[in-house]
Design a protein that fits this description.
mainly alpha; 16 helices
Length: about 425
């Protein structure tokens, strides 16, 4: 697209799509936003095709053909604040409230929204790790150790340059850093159960975003992007298992088989009220969610976690517990999405994290490195079942018509 046409409506549509894709929006949202903006500004012909890391577009505007535009968009950190801003801008454009020039100015403001301050990210990751360790039956000392490990992990992620290393190397190194930190703390006596410390600490790395967005891509008929992101989720999970497993195996070899586990503390239903708030709000901070959405994101996660805990308490079946938890929290997330006019992932991603099988990834990797093939196969199959159950739960709710979530006939598409 030439420089003199950089302020065209077609150029605006393309830049909005690029910004959405770069900040972690789903494929269907990127494509739908671009097409709606083009229609709102009466572009005669407009064709766009979006992949998980590229956009193809061409248009005819004011009787002149704009050459095909191909743009590679590398993956970046998820920033829900920017996605929400662009989503709101597209609404106003469709409503005829914003001119092309005003939209360009607004878009520049939106894409310049800063990331959360590194110190806040460090503390959010630390608090989320501690609470998650405690939620899964760890003691207060395990939570304290997970707090330190989570803080160290986020400091490491802030320091590493994602432009010079692949995502898989970053996840492999990050999981190893977490495991080394957990082993050191466990060795000096902080923490009662190494597995609970590690499980709480690696939750920041679990590919919940890739899993969730891949499901939405599949449901919207974009099987190519859905497959790419699903493979990405499984590969990241494998990197986490390898990084943690290698460190734990080395530790066991050096210590002659020191005990790693303890009998899990029973997690009472009444005790979860103070734990879930910190967990889900911590993840909302990590993904740069607008502050006004923190409470709703926390409520979504709490609702799903409550369903999970109750079902496991009465049946012991973690697979169906994950399915019903995903079903419940996705329903509430869609309700909030319509009510607050914000994209569904803003509420869904932070809420789904504690249900994603981070513990299963850890135990599968551990048993593989310990040559416990039967246990590794059992845990691996269970982890895949949980992932499928979560996918089905999200898929069923997302496929329901909007009147299940709101009585209004006009509003956003989420």
């Amino acid at each position: 697209m030439t420089e003199e046409r950089s302020e065209s409506a077609a150029g605006l549509s393309f830049k909005m799509g690029e910004a959405l894709l770069r900040n972690g929006a789903e494929i269907f949202r990127v494509q739908e936003t671009m097409e709606r903006v083009a229609r709102a500004y009466d572009i005669e012909e407009y064709d766009v095709y979006v992949l998980s890391n590229a956009i193809f577009a061409n248009a005819v505007e004011n009787g002149e053909k704009i050459d095909t535009k191909l743009k590679f968009v590398p993956g970046s950190t998820v920033h829900f604040g920017r996605i929400v801003g662009i989503n709101q801008l597209s609404r106003e454009i469709v409503a005829g409230k914003v001119s092309v020039e005003e939209a360009y100015a607004r878009l520049r403001e939106i894409v310049s929204i800063p990331y959360t301050h590194p110190i806040r990210l460090d503390l959010a990751c630390a608090v989320g790790s501690a609470c998650f360790s405690y939620l899964f039956g760890g003691t207060v000392f395990d939570a304290a150790a997970a707090f330190i490990c989570g803080f160290v992990l986020q400091v490491f992620l802030n320091a590493i340059d994602s432009r010079t290393a692949s995502k898989f190397i970053i996840n492999l190194a990050s999981s190893a850093v977490v495991a080394v930190c957990a082993v050191l703390l466990f060795t000096v006596g902080l923490g009662d159960s190494l597995d609970k410390i590690i499980i709480g600490s690696i939750i920041r790395l679990v590919p919940g975003v890739a899993l969730t967005t891949s499901i939405r891509d599949f449901l919207n008929g974009d099987y190519l992007s859905g497959t790419i992101r699903m493979i990405d989720a499984f590969l990241v999970g494998g990197c986490i298992a390898i990084g943690v497993g290698a460190v734990v195996m080395t530790y066991i070899s050096l210590t002659g088989g020191a005990p790693l586990f303890m009998t899990p503390e029973a997690v009472s239903i009444g005790s979860i009220q103070t734990r879930w708030r910190c967990v889900h709000i911590a993840f909302a901070i990590i993904f740069h969610t607008p502050r006004e959405q923190y409470v709703c994101a926390g409520l979504v996660g709490a609702f799903g976690w409550l369903i999970y805990i109750v079902y496991v308490y009465f049946t012991g079946d973690v697979v169906f517990a994950s399915f019903f938890a995903a079903l419940g929290l996705t329903y509430l997330a869609r309700v909030f999405s319509f009510a607050r006019k914000a994209p569904l992932p803003v509420f869904l991603i932070a809420g789904i994290f504690p249900v994603v099988p981070g513990a299963g990834i850890y135990y599968t990797g551990y048993h593989i490195f310990m040559n416990n093939n039967a246990e590794a196969m059992s845990k691996g199959v269970e982890t895949i079942k949980i992932a499928i159950a979560i996918a089905l739960g999200i898929g069923i709710v997302v496929s329901l018509p909007r009147f299940f979530f709101t009585l209004r006939r006009k509003g956003s598409t989420t």
